[in-house]
Amino acid sequence: MKQVRVNLRTLVNASKIREEIRDGRKVVIVPSTTLVDGSILNKIRYPASVIADSFHTLEGTPAPLGHPVLNGKFVSAKDPQGLVRTFIGAWNENVRRENGRVHVDKVIDVAFANQSDGGKRVLAAVEKQKPIHTST
């Protein structure tokens, strides 16, 4: 099966961002819309039927900063070597499809994110309501 990199940009809606304490750790939850039915990404069209069959696979996946690259090639965010390079303590949950769009909550562990420059940049972008790059 051929893997395709998909990069999207979304604006942050500050009114929907929330903070929670989970297992004693502060997390920031950023709702995001990630894929629209019929999107053309990387010259490939993704019809509603294909998205409907696969969107649920995003549940519980890492949400890396950028897309992991090893030896000049894109790898899965689940690849251990790629994960070490791009993980900022964020993951996807509450994945759902509504009105022809895939929605997902990006959950960011604040203490973990603050351990890296990339994580700090993401938290600052959320705070300033700047667009955030996601890769699926």
Give an account of the 3D structure.
This protein has helices at residues 48-54, 80-86, 110-113, 117-128; strands at residues 7-10, 18-22, 25-36, 39-41, 44-46, 69-70, 73-74, 90-98, 101-109, 132-135. The chain has 136 residues and is α+β, with helices and mostly antiparallel strands. It has a 4-stranded antiparallel β-sheet with strand order 2-3-9-8. A two-stranded antiparallel ribbon has the order 1-10. A hairpin with a 2-residue loop joins β2 (18-22) and β3 (25-36). It is globular, with a radius of gyration of 15 Å. It starts with 6 loop residues before the first strand and ends with a strand.
One letter per element, helices H and strands E, the order comes to EEEEEHEEHEEHHE
| Class by SSE composition | alpha+beta
Q: In whole angstroms, how far apart are the ends?
A: 16 Å
Count of DSSP H/I helices: 4
Mean pLDDT: 86
Number of strands: 10
Shape: globular
Query: How can the largest sheet be summarized?
Result: 4 strands, antiparallel
What fraction of the residues are assigned to beta strands by DSSP? 35-45%
Q: What topology, given as strand order, has the largest sheet? A: 2-3-9-8
Q: Which residues form runs of ≥5 with pLDDT under 50?
A: 1-9
Radius of gyration over alpha carbons? 15 Å
Helix content: 10-25%
